[in-house]
Write a structure and sequence with these properties.
Arc Repressor Mutant, subunit A; alpha+beta; homodimer; binds zinc ion; DNA-binding; three-stranded mixed sheet; Dna Ligase, domain 1; globular
Chain lengths: 138, 138
Amino acid sequence: MRYPDDSLIALKENGYRLTATREAVNKVLYDHKGPFTIEMVSDALPGIGRATIFRTVRLFQDLGIICRVNMEGGAVRYQLASTGEHHHHFICTVCGVVTEFIDAHIDQAVNRQAQGADFELNSHTIDLYGVGSCCSKK
Amino acid sequence: MRYPDDSLIALKENGYRLTATREAVNKVLYDHKGPFTIEMVSDALPGIGRATIFRTVRLFQDLGIICRVNMEGGAVRYQLASTGEHHHHFICTVCGVVTEFIDAHIDQAVNRQAQGADFELNSHTIDLYGVGSCCSKK
DNA sequence: TAGCAATTTGATATTAAGTATCAATAAGGA
DNA sequence: TCCTTATTGATACTTAATATCAAATTGCTA
Ligand SMILES: [Zn+2]
Ligand SMILES: [Zn+2]
Ligand SMILES: [Zn+2]
Ligand SMILES: [Zn+2]
């Protein structure tokens, strides 16, 4: 998912209707970039009900358009997924920016662990917390 | 952290007071075993205020006695850490049981990723979701 | 072991994330 | 255009968690 239209295409392809509300939310996400909370989207779109924002964000998650990110301490952020691919997160604990990475090597090791433990793996998450180059005081 | 007393020792060692409330919460956790919610602890200890349960659970987390586990979908569970060591989680999405594993190989790869990305890593979490041997219908 | 300062607690209020309900509205295919 | 179905908004509700602050408890020490 790279361009705003990709979201709208994903909606149609999956049998969801293309509504003004969903377009508006999508626009906010692409205009904003970076991590966001439901509050931020809601504030940016005063005409749209909170419940609908939640619904839309969840739908976009299901479509792989955005990821949900658990911050340290339990707060939740969402962010546009740069692609629909499986990936992991660098989470800057200073500014909140989330960067994605892919590591086939780690994924292999994860699968191996699951096999060794007789665990039928369905999904996994890997989150790295620290200070990104965005905020490092070199 | 293996025995109930370990928690009490950890409290003292870190300059926290050993109170009846903390002992009571600790006992509930060790008697119960397995994952728990704040509700469960609160129900088991009607005489203790909710806020104090939260405070105690957070304190025990800080001391490495329990882990917080994010379930798929965002629900939160806590569970006694079998040791104070760094570890990762198998999370059975059927029954909710959380099993720990340690994998130095993965941790190395994680550190390598962080170095390569100029990311000053402070901590990380790895959670595997699926069906454990506890619930596999072989 | 009585006294005291500092920590901890409970009650209460509040914030925040998220879901449930349901009538009214909008989308899109025929 | 019409009609069925999906979507929305308002509202209420649930659950997790934090803030406040006076009252109770702890650990220490004189
Ligand atoms: Zn940053
Ligand atoms: Zn992976
Ligand atoms: Zn299970
Ligand atoms: Zn690790």
